[in-house]
Amino acid sequence: MSDLILMGTKNNSKAETIKDALKDEESFYKVIKPVLELMNFKDVQETRKNRKTSDYGVDYTATTGDEKWAIQAKFRSKSACGNDAVNEVVGGKNHYHATRTLVITNGRFTDTAKKTALVNSTRLIDRESIIEAIDGKSLDAVLLPYPYAPDYEQLREEYHRVKKDYCNGRPPTERNIKEHSKYRVSKFKKAVLPNTWNTFIKQMGDVPVRNTKIKNDELVKNYNHVKQKVGRVPTLKDLSAHGDIDAGHYTKYKSKEFQKRHGYRIFLLSQKDRPNRNEGLSKKELEEHQKKYVGELRSLKEILGRTPTLIEFLVAINKTNIRPLFKTYAELQSKAGIAPRIRKASKKLLVENYNSVKKELKVPDSKALRQKDIDSCGSFKSDSYRRYWGSWNNFLRKYKQPLNLNNMPSEERLEQAIESYLQVCELLDKESLSFSEYKLAKGEHPAWIIGTTKWNTFKELALKKAASQKSVKAASQEMV
Predict the structure, then answer these.
(1) Average pLDDT over all residues of the chain
(2) N or C end: fewer C-beta atoms under 10 angstroms in the chain?
(3) In what order do the strands lie in the sheet with 60-64?
(4) Measured between alpha carbons, how far is residue 66 from residues 33, 60, 62, 91, 95 in Å?
(5) Which tens digits make up the pLDDT trace of 430-454?
(6) What pLDDT score was predicted for residue 257?
(7) What are the φ/ψ torsions at residue 207 (nearest 5 degrees)?
(8) φ and ψ of 43, to 5 deg
(9) How far apart are CA 383 and CA 300, in angstroms?
């Protein structure tokens, strides 16, 4: 297994190799020893050869310098590792004369486990730390003095360094830490509970960025700096990427709670600048993008043989919106020379649409169209039919189309199936039919028609109805 890990390191596929090993319990316990060795542990030994024997809460022992470690390994398939693992290794370390304790798991740790580990000076190694160790990054940060973050003092010094050198004395944002710090943002978050960036800022005695009050002069100065840098009216993304002030302060500019999304627009108007609707595109770039969208729409129409819907077009171009290039989808259609779909259809148009689809799909008169057929091939969706007639079956009844038995209520389906069965019996001059005889006569599967009703039960119901029909007929003949 150690050869496999080291080979994965050379081929830049170590993370995938370890992830696969962490999914299976047997592979997880095999991979622990080489992982610990990569973390600079020496003399890594398993405390028991057979996993059924008692280990006093310690699975491995190892050394680093003059210290001896008691290590507990916990595999979790779904749940997080709790404080029971920490308590076990703390209780068993004296049996092996260990001075330090460590718990390693293939998943994550609960907040209770982290608190218990901090109280007992136990180190924790989770899934993320294992993969980092295999990547060869920050091996010391994985272990000392916390398994999930560097030393608290190191983090504090790093925080104040970024704050002083890159943020002009303001609390740094996560983006500032990501760009200028030697530690990941996750290391700062995991050093506090709950694991959030704002919690860490409060621990440092600062106010979170969004809650600080920025003077209007500073907002204007930062805005002009970014505007000069990008050479146009900056977007909020530009302010986040190139500015020293968080873009959230512009969204809250002179706006009430329910108007926050209009704050940047109000700020732009105060600077006598027009809101940038085109995401920073020049006029030439805007025209090029519009031509590209028009070409995509025309080609999609040729493929489908009809006017595509907005959702179909967005899926084809792998986008979520056509703005800011076009205000509406109708505007795009008109530029492409395509007539938009009629939204409000009359009953006459819906009937014509039904007949044209039926003719196009070559459906015989003995069968009716399904809603799927209308949705995929028609000019109007089946929702339009339900708005006028209440349901699809009501439309079919109104225009004397054969009902689709699969869409009918169970009782109505059963009644129609029984009538069909009795008709076949009369044609074949038999009192009852077998399953295969009925199937051959009708050319369709009986189970599909009668739903969950068993065949013998169905036949009994059919015979009862036939008997009642005979008695009614005999009574009427007697009266005559």
Answers:
(1) 75
(2) C
(3) 42-46, 60-64, 67-74, 100-105, 122-125
(4) 20, 17, 11, 21, 18
(5) 877 777 777 676 655 454 444 444 6
(6) 44
(7) -95, 135
(8) 50, 50
(9) 24
Q: How far apart are CA 105 and CA 201, in angstroms?
A: 29
Q: Are strands 67-74 and 60-64 parallel, antiparallel or unpaired?
A: antiparallel
- The per-residue pLDDT for range 121-138, each reduced to its tens digit, is 888 888 877 777 766 554
Instruction: Return the domain boundaries, the chain.
Output: 2-143, 152-211, 216-270, 283-335, 347-404, 408-479
Could you please report the per-residue DSSP string of 336-383? Answer: TT-PPPPSS--HHHHHHHHHHHHHHTT--TTS---HHHHHHHSSS-HH
Spatial separation of the C-alpha atoms in residues 170 and 219, rounded to whole Å:
14
Q: How many whole angstroms separate alpha carbon 25 and alpha carbon 77?
A: 8
Helix (H, G, I), strand (E, B) or coil at 125: strand
pLDDT at 316 over 60: yes
Closest listed residue to residue 441, CA positions, set 428, 456, 460, 455: 428
CA distance 480 to 469: 17
295 pLDDT exceeds 50?
A: yes
For residues 92 and 71, what is the distance between their CA atoms, to the nearest angstrom? Answer: 10
Question: What letter represents residue 260's amino acid?
Answer: K
Q: Is the pTM of this model over 0.90?
A: no
Would you say 101 and 69 are in contact if contact means Cβ atoms under 8 Å apart?
Answer: yes
Adjacent-strand bridge partners of 101: 70, 122
**Statement: 2-143 belongs to CATH 2.40.10.410:** no
Q: Which amino acid is at 379?
A: S
Distance, CA of 84 to CA of 172 (rounded, Å): 37
Asked if the model's pLDDT at residue 273 lies above 50, the reply is yes
Residues in the chain: 480
Tokens at 423, concatenated: 């008709």
How many other C-beta atoms are found inside a 10 Å radius of the C-beta of residue 176? 20
Contact 105, 76 (CB under 8 A): yes
